[in-house]
Every structure is written in structure tokens, then in C-alpha cells.
Design goal:
The protein is α/β, with parallel strands linked by helices. 38% of the residues lie in helices and 16% in strands. The chain has 11 helices and 8 strands. It has helices spanning 92-105, 118-129, 147-154, 163-170, 181-189, 194-211, 218-225, 227-242, 252-255, 278-287, 306-320; strands spanning 14-19, 25-32, 37-42, 63-68, 111-116, 134-140, 265-270, 292-296. Strands 1-2-4-3-5-6-7-8 form an 8-stranded mixed β-sheet, sandwiched between helices. A hairpin with a 5-residue loop joins strand 1 and strand 2. The longest helix has 18 residues, at 194-211. The protein starts with 13 loop residues before the first strand and ends with a helix. 47% of the residues are buried.
Length: 322
Amino acid sequence: MEPRTLYPPIEPHDSGLLPTPDGEEIHWEVCGNPQGKPVVMVHGGPGGGCSPAHRRQFDPERYRIVLFDQRNCGRSRPHAADPAVTLERNTTWNLIADMERLREHLGIDRWMVFGGSWGSCLSLAYAITHPDRVSELVLRGIFLLRPFELFWFYEYGASLIYPDLWERYVAPIPEEERENLVAAFAERLHHPDPDVRLPAARAWATWEGATITLLPSAGHLSQFDDPDYAVAFARIENHYFTHGGFFESDDWILDNIDAIRHIPAVIVQGRFDVCTPVATAWDLHKAWPEADFHLVDGAGHAFDEPGVLDRLIAATDAFAEK
């Protein structure tokens, strides 16, 4: 059987900006069958935003496909590329509230929640908080925002696999400040001088863009190098990492799995994922053996890695029947 791939390109039939009580505006769109099974696509980062390719992970004949850009990124406003934009209201719990507000705005009772990378973390946190609103979960590239996961990718670990790319990542940071790179980048990402802010943002963002696929991908890297994208992406990610994802404890998600144990779920993880290493997905699998777990050999982190995409679309196709 040929590996499953993306469904054909599709355009939204509805979209808008959803205002929040604290003055933010969340961009949303709906594609596919207006009478189909509701699914919400939760993008990564935090700060990554949605892309047209994200619409294509679902059968448009059978799904009502909801996408939204999380606070301060993508087409949501205000945008974090503007250094004057404060991120103090951008928290995990406000994102969860935004998802609930959007669900109610669209008149959806329950929806399938589909998230990858940071999106897997936010999807899990949303489901734990609102389990009665989740019909199924499809999760990819598992990230639980625990300290060792951040240390591995941003401080020491992945650096041993990509020493050449690591040198470019740390280049904006003087050697004497490299003992805490997340903090050192934070100082620069919020600097008023664009000659300080932009090089740091590009270094942070392109480090991820260059390592998310098993093999080099110029297409992925070019997006991360875009100035506005890089600044928003880097600022929002660093903001969340500095605050530990706003969770009460490092293992908050694993400690609350009982709340969602009954929800049908599929977990897809690339064996050679450097950004969110397989140990995290394995920890989730061990805590939640009821979920259908797929470890994909020959794949890295990105959703469109061939083996990963095959398993994701197999999951959405299967759940479309329910």
C-alpha cells in the first residue's frame, strides 16, 4: 500500500477574528464539509501559526476542519513581531480559554483535537481541562514542556548531533553568557534595537527549522528565516519556556492523564525526532497505554515526514467513521 499523503489543497469557506475579553483577536478559519465531523488543528511553536498544508491532513468530504492561530502569531492580532506587543496575556490557560470560546462561537458541542509538537502539549492540556468536549485526540511529536526537554534542545544534547548548526544558534550569545541560553536569548529577543533582536530571533528560529526534519529541508528552513515569523516565533517560544509552560508542576500533564484515559487517542512519534526526543512520547505511552502508539522509524519531527504523515492521515481517516 502506498503511504498516505496530504489531501488536495482546499480553501476556507468561513473565517474571522474572534475577540477575547482581554483585547486580543484570534484568527480562525473553517474548511471542508460544514456538516462534517468537527476537528480542531492545534499548531506548534508556541508561536508557529497555521499554514495551508495543515488543512490537508483531513478528508474534506468528511470533516469540518477548524484551524486557528494562537495568540500573537500567524494572522492573530496583535502580532509578536512588534516588540511593543506584550506577551503577559499569552499563557497556556488563556489559549485553552480561546479554544473554548472558539468552539462555542462555531456552535460545536464536541470536536476531535489534533495537535503536533507544542500543539500536542496544548491539546493534552485542553483535553485534561475540558474532557467532555473532546471526542478523540491525535497527537504527534510529543512535547510536554518539562525542564529536561528544554535543556536537551536549547542548552545541551541536540548540540552533540548538530554541532555545525549549534554554532549558528549560539552565535549571537557571548561565550560568557552561554550557561543559560534561554535566559540569554530572552534578553535579546525583547531588546528594543532590531540589530540585537533580529539576529537572535533568526538564530533561535532557524535552529529549529534546520533540525525538524530527518534530512535537510530548504522549504522548512525558509519559513523560519522570515524576519516577522522568526521574531514572533522566537519571542513566544522563549516566553513559554521561561515560564515553564505556566504549568503547576513539571509533570502536570502526566499526573493528570486519568482525566482523559477514556478518550480514544493516537500518538505518532518519529524515531529520530531531535526537537522532541522519543523519550517524551515513550513516557506518555507508558502513562497512557490505552492510547494507540506509533513509533515511526526513518522519521524526524515534522508533520509531513513521510512515515509520520501516513500514520496521521490513517488516524484521521479512521476517526472520520466514528
